């Protein structure tokens, strides 16, 4: 059976540090937009019938960059002023009513706001609760950044086991583990199992386990145990379609995994491991076997899963080795860029744990909704069946989505700024990398930054853009009940391009 969802992240997961095109938006906004190192700006991004010289007449914030900024640099366009004119509501509405039309059945709702003042410039049933698809991840991103902070990292540890000769691989929430050496410059694969295995062998050789603590000795056989008890409750939610799970849109959620629960880090579609934690543990055991051979140690075949409480409390157990993940901010950016459902659900559970709740799926939902409410966003009529947007039972309005985006761009909680680099850039990165390539949407290429959302009868686009007058706008367009396979993404892209082309007066 064909899966009900339409996958958004079909390009390789970015794991290397990327160059960043820096854009300073308003006096309150500093947004770094992720841009793959070495990418060339295609002539098509200049729009039809425009030569490269035409960019000289464009306002500075919309000129094509001559060079790419360093990922850690602060060079870029100066802050935009609050005196830039705001688009006229009537003129903007006239233009959007021409572009925001469905192809076939269904309807679009939408809203556009001035980011600085919150003034509503376009409103089409913006308070109507709708299926948001992956735009749900915007709520999850904001909650994760508020609870854990953008600089927080997750630890994957090897602990001295409960019996002599045993070690425990303890999952700490990092599902972006790599099988090889740790790569400090990566997001996917920053923490590597080969590095963890080598450190474990060194600890065993040094007698770090100690006979009184259990664990291994300098010689002998090592037995690998797996503790993935950090998360509680069912690893799969009933709100997810079995067809979607079979297609790889989701998998049972565990607190450790390789490649965001993918068999191959370069393939972001297709089935996922049914037991990502055990798959990671077996990969660790294989790496440990290789590392132990030269140290006179052997590793017993097989990995046993231990129950919660069966091993020493990780807060008190002797830590033999440890690797740390990329930061929460970096992981949030990756989640938004690639629209990874699995990573979103893990982020939700880690948010719940950070808020003092158990790490279940229900607690993830409760924690995310509480943070959205605490952010000052109305949660009236908001319903969540998951935190990734895969569930069709989710209900969020366009206004609620734009309020979250506005909090990220212009709100008082500056921790949320860390999410801005993760918004896909029209025609360049992430799930918008293959869009905005025709004459009708070229005005938005490189300028529109937005989170996509796609199910068979649902599409959504929520994000931000600086218009031609230098005004920062936030927007959300959500289509429900659409004809599957119809050309409705083009309507969203044309509408967002209208915003980039304003002044609308």
TrEMBL record:
Molecular functions per Gene Ontology: carboxypeptidase activity
InterPro entries cross-referenced by the UniProt entry: Beta-lactam/transpept-like (IPR012338), Peptidase_S13 (IPR000667)
Keyword field: Carboxypeptidase, Hydrolase, Membrane, Protease, Transmembrane, Transmembrane helix
Sequence intervals crossing the membrane: 20-46
Disordered as annotated region, ranges: 50-79
Superkingdom field: Bacteria
Compositionally biased intervals (Polar residues): 64-74
Signal peptide: none
Protein family per UniProt: Belongs to the peptidase S13 family.
Record protein name field: D-alanyl-D-alanine carboxypeptidase/D-alanyl-D-alanine-endopeptidase
Organism in which the protein naturally occurs: Arthrobacter humicola
